[in-house]
Amino acid sequence: MPQATSLAAAIMEKTGSEPELVRGDKGIFDVTVDGRLIFSKHETGRFPEHEEVLEQL
User: Fold this and answer.
1) DSSP labels, 1-57
2) Domain spanning 2-54: CATH 3.40.30.10
């Protein structure tokens, strides 16, 4: 969860919008914006770097 909260803080700082963290299971970590998947740990096998997500916002 620390990686998710750190990324959420970076998103908040860049956009001024409060991201919603949804607890998942089985190692799922997806980032969606307006219903569009922009990063999936399941597909890549790793957590995103902050910039990978921030540049897509």
Assistant:
1) -HHHHHHHHHHHHHHS--PPP---STT--EEEETTEEEEEHHHHSSPPPHHHHHTT-
2) yes
